[in-house]
Amino acid sequence: MPDDMARPLIRERAGGSRHLEASMLEPSTLVIGILGTGDFSRSLARRLVASGYQVVVGSRTPARSAALFPEESEVTSQMEAANQADLVFVAVYPEHHSTLVQLKPALAGKTLVDVSNGLQIKQEGPSNAQQLADLFPESYVVKGFNTISAWTLQAGPRDGSRQVFLCSDDQNAKSSVMQLCRRMGFIPVDMGLLSSSLEIENLPLYLFPSWRTPIICALALFVFFYLYNSVRDVLYPYVTSKKNNLYKLPIEIVNVTFPCVALVMLALVYLPGLIAAFLQLWWGTKYNRFPNWLDHWLIQRKQFGLCSFLCAVLHAIYSLCLPMRKSARFQLINKAFEQVQTGRPDSWVEEEVWRMELYLSVGIMALGLLSLLAVTSLPSVANTVNWREFTFVQSTLGYCALSMATLHTLIFGWNRAFLSAQYHFYMPPTFLLVLILPLAVLLGRLALFLPCVGHRLRQIRRGWEKSRHIRFILPDDDCRNGLENVSNVSMHVDAASRPARCTSAAAISLGGISPRPLTYSDVKCQMFLLLFFFLPL
Length: 537
Ligand code: NAP
Prior knowledge:
Layout: H1 2-6, E1 31-35, H2 39-50, E2 54-59, H3 62-65, E3 74-77, H4 78-84, E4 87-90, H5 104-107, E5 111-114, H6 128-135, E6 140-143, H7 150-155, E7 163-168, H8 171-183, E8 187-190, H9 197-202, H10 212-241, H11 252-283, H12 292-299, H13 301-321, H14 326-342, H15 350-376, H16 379-382, H17 387-413, H18 430-449, H19 451-461, H20 482-486, H21 520-534
Helix pairs in contact: 10-11, 11-13, 11-17, 11-18, 13-15, 15-17, 17-18
């Protein structure tokens, strides 16, 4: 065995620069060098050896690190590794790149893969890879593998992200690394020129960028409704009748707060699509850019929807746990005693029974539909359905979920909105506040169902413009389900902000394009929009 270890695994090669062609990348003929012997280097060496490559590792102190590497690889000095390798991974921190300059002649003409990450998100370059390219102008620098952790490399691509983002100014060098990537079981993603390296280096540093607004929104709503409910249900009884309801704070108040947040967040999923549709109707064109805030909102609907789903699930779990509490048991026993004492043992109230049955049934349906939306928003599931199926689930079933959740709240409120005793400190009951936004969204959606509005919107989504030359009449059977595109609400993609996709075979026929003055239908549509916006005011 010691003899085997001593035997050089990498055969001697002629020195000089070799610029790899993709076709040369046969694992058995290729020597891959790795500079650095840290965590990343060790995992990479294992993966490369497992993929059939010859690996030579360059270290400042080879004797110290050799035992940590697979025995099929060779650990040697940096210079020796640079000389032997055809393609070199630079697995040292970027602040130490400059210590490798003495390897410049040995690395000339070779491909260098920079795997380094930055410490913080940078908006402006130069990136680590660009700096490395400046240090080694005679080498071909490829940025990549920095989004793959040492753990993923070691465990294999099945246990972690499989995509490897690559960029380089040299197409051949990039192709070589892409091929190597595939052989290792990863999926290379071509990100273009080395100028994209800043973006690639920033990728692992982002902390849920698209989740920030939805989470802040959900937290703000939670704090608002929690305080609102506490004032009504804890402070009010204490001030008016010295009743101590503080025990309600951990469970009961939280349980009534979660559905408030869930319903408002769900309405916020559908609101931007409606705003987009009404803006397009107002402008009479789809070619105006939406304001930035609306663009961002449209893009983040999936996250809004998932936050809503989380709150709905927590509400369901809290509700199931309500009867387990000691306070609930004491209240039940007290009520039973009270009824025995007053001689009214029959506590059956028909109206209450029906209210609760309906309330629970509709709530369960709303949660079921929300679960379906959440599951379909997973990329792996979304990829298995076509555009029409996806739109059906996210838009049609999504609106069903919103309607069910609104109905759930309406039944919860029942006739209590009309009881003056419900207006503690002149504050309306929480369910009344919560209903404003979902009802507005549902009404807006109904408005888009009106033929004059829906038809105009379909035309606009197909390129019709009020003030320009592109005017045409849609054939009756044009869009099978045009309204699905009206406010194409999804937890997954930004559909409303891009041109509507009509799967119908009917396209805009040139013969149909007809410049024409403002018609009765235009006027009707604009009058309706005016009424819709200004009547509530
Ligand atoms: P590490 O464990 O600290 O290893 C860095 C290696 O750099 C050392 O073992 C050292 O090996 C070598 N080195 C060469 N010149 C050096 C110098 N002047 N001073 C200090 N060390 C020097 O780091 P790592 O986790 O392997 O990360 C290496 C690179 O991979 C970094 O750029 C990192 O951003 C990137 N990366 C890491 C991961 C990960 O999961 N760890 C993931 C993606 C990207 P010798 O002493 O043998 O020369």
